Amino acid sequence: MEFAKTIISTKEALPMDILPVFCDIDDFCQFFEPRWKQRLLSSEERQRGRAARLCLSEVMTIITLFHASSYRNFKAYDTEQVMKHYAGAFPRLTSDNRFVELMPSALVPWCGYLQTRKGACSGICLIDSTSLKVCHNRRIHSHQVFANCARRGKTSVDWFFGFKLHLVINDCGELLSLRLTPGNVDDRRPVPELVKDLFGKLFGDKGYISQPLFETLYDDGLQLVTKMEEKDEESAHLHVRQDYAQEARRHPERDRSTQKHLANRAQPASQCGKLLRQFNRRVDRLYLPGEEAIAQHSCRRAVADSGAGFLSSLIPNSR
Known about the structure:
Helix content: 40-55%
Number of helices: 13
Mean pLDDT: 76
Order of helices and strands: HHHHHHEEEEHEHEHHHHH
Strand content: 5-15%
Distance between the termini: 86 Å
Structural class: alpha/beta
Shape: globular
């Protein structure tokens, strides 16, 4: 417990309590590192295998703290935070250049540790993606680091060059699944793999609207919920207007004025949209006088009771 004693004896107050973070990562490394090294492929070249000054858990802890901070480059974080506030917690710190060389060795264990931090599915899942830019758009042609794997992509804001990070979380904000893809991959493509073994409802934005995707997920026990496109919304309004006309033709014994109003004075799409929005888009059908209203909402029941008179009051120039 030399690490814990070092933190307790540190006179300068730390910006955050890093002891729980280190202990959790160190427990994982003690289990993962021996098994990982046993599965590494050996080469014919002779390797020294000398241990670094910082152990694997210390490197992973510093990387985790760096990504949890608001710093955008590691050199500034190492100079202003690690060297000043965490020197007592990490007595064998290296220079920032040497630490950058140690970062690739912690990539595989850090990805494995990320898999252990996932939450449990509660039946309510949310999916979205974000762009990870590797350079400015003006430097795309001269970029060399990720030239073979990064691609041009487009978000709702602008074009970018880099990758897309796809995330699925539950209603508590806990991570359920993630994927990293090139920037030109459609948001809907990795969804089946992302939501494997999930259940309930999956909420997404307009970028996930797809009838084949909805049917595929529905067969697996997951319902995709997205906002309707404008053309689909206008089509729904048109179906409502057609239902009005059909009801008027089915019941010729009803009041002539009501029948004429429903059949010949069908609402325009804009007015129909206003009517549906007054009931939070939950009005499936407006019943005519004399029919039983199968509705739980009080507003819907009021519409069914008032019938054509209520409709006439909402539509101008209708008598």
